[in-house]
């Protein structure tokens, strides 16, 4: 779980909302809920003396403007009052999350998807996007948003290829760091070829040179599996 609304949904079949107490607990800068383990469900051992289930929340993750003056390091007075107010506000925000049904990132994804479908990123982007299933579209939208924040980046391209091209392997040339070799066991077809070209154009700087090998792996000296007669592509 990562967001307030996920905690509320997970608790619906197990707890009353009144039995949940949110506590400001700055943990990871990359997650809203402060849970001991990644992908953990509601804490099993977080029972307080009052029977409440205590859930730590990094209130600064999405709501810094609301909580920035409430938990200043030098502010020591009225701790119980501040904790109660934080719990009340976080419950209201969680309910708002559930009613709206999306986070800021979800909102950006929805707006981006609409723009793509309307042709705002070109006909090729639209066609490739519509050829994908829902899960693939979510992978692509996530990569697109990352690229908007940090610019074109090789790690994003690698994630997109691995996430959108089955069983793909990406190699970087040790002698030329700007040459990239991509292998997929899939047959070369128009749909796949267009998807690969789109990923290269979208997520890589123009300085990179990309060679794509379909179905047959190129030979690598010293690795017998890649040197089989009739099953090896020539670079």
Features:
235 residues; alpha/beta; 3-stranded mixed beta sheet; 8 helices; 43% helix; elongated; disordered C terminus
Structure description:
The protein is an alpha/beta fold and 235 residues long. The chain has two domains: 4-100, no CATH class; 104-233, no CATH class. The chain contains eight helices and seven strands. The protein has helices at residues 4-11, 60-67, 79-100, 104-117, 123-130, 134-150, 154-164, 190-203; strands at 20-24, 53-57, 169-172, 179-184, 209-214, 217-218, 232-233. Strands 3-4-5 form a three-stranded mixed sheet, covered by helices on one side. A two-stranded parallel sheet has the order 1-2. A two-stranded parallel sheet has the order 6-7. Helix 8 links the parallel strand 4 and strand 5 (209-214). Helix 1 (4-11) packs across helix 3 (79-100), helix 4 (104-117) packs across helix 6 (134-150) and helix 7 (154-164) packs antiparallel against helix 8 (190-203). The longest helix has 22 residues, at 79-100. The chain is elongated.
**Beta-strand content bin:** 5-15%
Domain count, please report it: 2
- Rg over C-alpha atoms, rounded to the nearest angstrom: 24 Å
Estimated structural class: alpha/beta
Report the principal-axis shape. elongated
Distance between the termini: 45 Å
In what order do the strands lie side by side in the largest sheet?
3-4-5
Q: Strands, helices and their partners?
A:
Elements: H1 4-11, E1 20-24, E2 53-57, H2 60-67, H3 79-100, H4 104-117, H5 123-130, H6 134-150, H7 154-164, E3 169-172, E4 179-184, H8 190-203, E5 209-214, E6 217-218, E7 232-233
Parallel strand pairs: 1-2, 4-5, 6-7
Antiparallel strand pairs: 3-4
Helix pairs in contact: 1-3, 4-6, 6-7, 7-8
């Amino acid at each position: 779980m990562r967001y307030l609304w996920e905690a509320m949904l997970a608790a619906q079949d197990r707890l009353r909302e009144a039995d949940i107490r949110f506590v400001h607990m700055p943990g990871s800068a990359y997650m809203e809920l402060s849970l001991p383990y990644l992908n953990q469900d509601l804490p099993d051992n977080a029972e307080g003396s009052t029977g409440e289930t205590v859930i730590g929340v990094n209130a600064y993750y999405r709501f810094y403007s609301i909580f920035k003056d409430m938990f200043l390091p030098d502010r020591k007075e009225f701790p119980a009052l501040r904790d109660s107010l934080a719990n009340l506000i976080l419950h209201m925000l969680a309910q708002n999350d559930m009613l709206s049904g999306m986070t800021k990132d979800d909102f950006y994804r929805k707006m981006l998807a609409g723009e793509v479908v309307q042709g705002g990123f070109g006909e090729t982007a639209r066609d490739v996007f519509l050829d994908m299933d829902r899960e693939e579209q979510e992978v692509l939208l996530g990569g697109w948003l990352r690229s908007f924040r940090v610019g074109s980046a090789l790690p994003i391209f690698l994630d997109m290829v691995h996430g959108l091209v089955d069983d793909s392997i990406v190699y970087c040339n040790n002698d030329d760091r700007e040459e990239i070799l991509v292998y997929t066991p899939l047959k070369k077809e128009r749909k796949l070829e267009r998807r690969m070209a789109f990923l290269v154009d979208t997520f890589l700087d123009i300085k990179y040179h990309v060679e794509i090998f379909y179905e047959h792996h190129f030979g690598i000296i010293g690795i017998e599996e890649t040197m089989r007669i009739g099953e090896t592509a020539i670079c």
